[in-house]
Amino acid sequence: MKLALYILKRLLLLLPLLFGVTLIVFVLTRVVISGNPIDQIVPPMATAEMRQQLAERYGLTDPILVQYGKYMRNLLRGDMGVSFQSGLPVTEDLRKFFPATFELTTYAMLLAILVGVPLGILSAVKRDTWIDHLSRFLSVSGVSMPVFWFSLLLIYFFFFLWQLAPAPLGRINPRLSAPETFTGLLTLDSLLAGNWKALRSSVTILILPTLALAYGAMAPLARMARSGMLEALESQYIVAARALGLPWRSIVFRYALKNALLPVVTMIAVVYGFLLGGSVLVENIFAWPGLGRYAYNAIAGSDYTAIQGFVLYTTTMYVILFLLTDLVYRFLNPRIEI
Amino acid sequence: MKRLVTSMTFVLVAFLAGLALAQERTLIIAIASDMQNLDPTLSSGDIITQEVLTNVYGYLVDFAKEEGDDGQLIGNADVFMGDIAESIEPAEDGLSVTFRIRPGLKFSNGDPIDANAVKFTYDRIFGQGGVTAFLTGMAAVDGADAVRVLDDHTVVFDISTPNTLLLGNMAQFGHSILNPNVVKPHMTEEDPWAHEWLQNNTGGTESGPYVIESWDRGNEIVLARNPNYYGEVANDKVILKIIPDPSSRLAQLRAGAVDIAYDIPPKDIAGLERDPNINVQRFTTRAVVYLGMNNTVPPFDNVKVRQAISYAIPYDIILDNVIKGFGIQLTSPIPQGTPYHTDEFFVYEQDFEKARALLAEAGFPDGFETTFTIRNDRAEDKEAAVWIQSALREIGIDATIEEMPGAAFTEKMQRREHGFFFANQWISINNDPFYHMFWLLKADCCDYARYQNDRVWSLIDDFTLSTDLEAREAAAMEIQETVLEEAPWVFLFQPEKVMVTRSDVEGYVWHSADRYTRFHFLKRTDWN
After folding, report:
1. CATH of residue B414
2. How far away is chain B from the Cα of A92, in angstroms, using its nearest Cα?
């Protein structure tokens, strides 16, 4: 009951936050960034009057406060406006681009956690052995190697040279028909539909971009797990446990691990939140129709409504992720009051 | 063992044969960005949008297809034939043109394409008052009443001043014939011309070779053969796959995952020409690429300054190192390939002595500081900008390169507020020198360098609508001489269109008028 109240309170706090964000983004897009969405959607020969007519239709000629008022009124009804570039409601665009990013990011994040966290812990427990050195090498190269470069390497070797991976043509082989949409996640949808061809294609095509994203995401997790574990192993309660003659295995996994994981969980939330905003470089190279590209195009084309919608989405994502993080904290360490 | 191998082979062959049978005749084209606003009469200016419109809609007038030097078909920019129209008959006095509509034509949904549809289309064009209305009006067809229906299959266009522009202005997607039964229901009080529906949809009103089967924003556009199209379509389906990264497009073409790749950077094409699996076709376009110098803003309002800059630019380096030879020197405001073009008056070459002298005469013996504006999303523009910057430094001009996001650059360019800038490629669909010069040297929208010269402007006014070909030619010569002398731009180059395909793709028909690919000619050699 207390927990439910807490969650409710945190979600209510989202409202003023979103309000502030809309205000900032509104001013940023219309005042600070120059460029006009109308110029992007009409031919160069269009006369000033035609541009003016369209600007009036889209309400761009109103005073900025009036525009903001209208935007907020529509937003409260769940209407984020129509994107200038795609010509579709922004909510519909987000609903379409989100699953692509979510699917890729989640697989990449799972892989990064599964590899990075054990690697970090092992390297702390077996400090200064080859495992530690390997882990250090992987994490340093993971953060320092530019992701577009790594992506191109992956494509060059696995697709072009060795032909082990399918062509990086987006989320599924374009010659196949996509499965019926249930969740928007193609791997899950093809599984639910029992469409094995589509499942095979969507899974294999995911491998390279997942690797590309996971490599960079794994590095901070491994480093964080390692330092957390080292700190835990040196703390007094571990010394006490060792003095009491508890077996090493249970010291590491029962006592040290829980404390070591706290900063890792925070790091997971930060990295995951960052990735959920989409990765323009990876999406561009793998022709992945995700949110990063959507946001990038929106900014390049001064697509006000799309930019606003995207920022609202990322804000909400972060708030939810951090809420979940706090809940996990409580589970890992019951002393933490929320 | 041997039996096993034989039976395995058999299974494999059977499998492959089955695969081949099941395969639709599909072509995959890797493109760089999505299309945007599909309303034919007010569409966005990007190439993909306009190319899709060209393939989805039919219009009365099309470019005649002829055999080129190597036996390959090309679309002639100066000769017209009917498309929706079966015949085009200009009146002897030049005051009207009669279009007879091909009998039995149908829209993709089965509705008839007849005089009623044509009339509806032009009523909408003039009612909406977009670019197409202007272009039609420019050729002296004065409004919707000038388009008259004679019978079910005959439409007459009345012309108030005889001219040579009309057919050229009509041979483009703005004149797409629309299906009244489909479009009318979307016309509302707020949106009287169904702009909102047409900018996202074509379903049921397609009159060209293809229908849009699906448009998955940011991912792919699938075009399928229009079952009611009267002509031949060499493939069943064309998938335009959006792959924004040029290296990725290149890798996928080389590996055969796509059949055609657009926008391959010049530096990569040279390597492709040696690849036996890749076919590179090159065509000189009539697109003009120039540096604009705002003729109303100091110091560029001084003709000597503009000439000095024109003598400082490293033309050869830009042609050889930046665009790697995929283009030719632009030598006149009228590009090579357009009637009356001459390079007689082009005197500019890199000559620092002359440039310094001119700059001193202009009152800037020590040069000046200025800003050179480019788009931030085009690698070649950036490279050229650096060469230009260092050349200008030689004559004492200190130019800071200012990179702007595409949208911001375009907005400023449309307002004609750039001082010294790298202009976008411009191509005039109508291959008429006066049409071309009207837009680039006079029109409020597109004279980005704010060139002004009353004599040149009055010549443009007098001869845009004229059938006196000799006088037109003389006027065109005079304008070219004046403009080259006054150097409102630095004349850079005419880029090539480079069509990069797998070598088993054939049938590309080059259209120099608009550069758009007509997909319905394309097929693979392994199809029967």
Report:
1. 3.10.105.10
2. 11
Residues A187 and A48 in one domain: no
Q: Classify residue A88: in a domain, yes or no.
A: no
How confident is the model over B343-365, as pLDDT tens digits? 999 999 999 999 999 999 999 99
Asked if A33 has any chain B CB less than 8 Å from its own CB, the reply is yes
Considering the domain architecture, whether residues B221 and B350 belong to the same structural domain is answered as no
B70 contacts B184 by C-beta, under 8 angstroms: no
Domain identity same for B216 and B362: no
Residues of A in contact with B131 (CB under 8 A): 42-43, 45-46, 50
A12: burial class by Cβ within 10 Å (0-12, 13-18, 19+)?
exposed
Examine the fold and report which residue of A44, A76, A108 is the final residue of a domain before the chain moves on: A76
pTM comes to: 0.91
Interface of B with A in 130-189 (CB under 8 A): 130-131, 134-135
Contact criterion met (CB < 8 Å) for A287 and B414 = no
Enclosing domain of residue A159: 93-332
* pLDDT above 50 for B20: no
Grouping H, G, I as helix, E, B as strand and the rest as coil, residue B78 is strand
Q: Are residues A255 and A281 in the same domain?
A: yes
Phi and psi, residue B247, nearest 5°:
-65, -35
Q: Which of B33, B36, B251 sits opposite A156 (nearest CB)?
A: B251
State how far the Cα of B328 lies from the Cα of B313, in Å rounded to an integer. 15
pLDDT the model gives residue A113: 96
Residues 145-174 of A with CB under 8 A from B: 148, 152, 155-156, 159-160, 163, 167-171, 174
In a domain, B361, yes or no: yes
**Whole-number pLDDT of residue A42:** 84
**Which of A34, A50, A76 is at the close of a domain?**
A76
CA-to-CA dists, residue B265 to B46, B321, B331, angstroms: 18, 12, 24
Q: Which residues of B touch A168 (CB under 8 A)?
A: 248, 252
Give the closest-approach CA distance of B450 to chain A in angstroms: 15
Record: contact B216-A289, CB cut-off 8 A: yes
Using CA atoms of A253, A258, A260, A262 in order, give the dihedral in degrees to the nearest 10: 160
A186 found inside a domain: yes
Mark whether A13 and A153 lie in a shared domain: no
State pLDDT tens for residues A194-241.
899 999 999 999 999 999 999 999 999 999 999 999 999 999 999 999
Is A337 a domain residue? no
Question: What is the structure's pLDDT at B15?
Answer: 47
Is the CB of A289 less than 8 angstroms away from the CB of B26? no
Distance of CA B258 to the CA centre of its chain: 23
Show the tokens assigned to B415: 């307002």
Please tell me which residue of chain B has the smallest CA distance to A83.
B36
Burial of B454 (0-12, 13-18, 19+ CB in 10 A): exposed
* Mean pLDDT within A152-165: 92
- Domain with B407, as residue range(s), is 288-496
The whole-angstrom distance between B16's CA and the closest CA on chain A is 16
pLDDT digits (tens, 9 = 90+) for B245-272: 999 999 999 999 999 999 999 889 988 8
Distance from CA of B79 to the nearest CA of A (A): 24
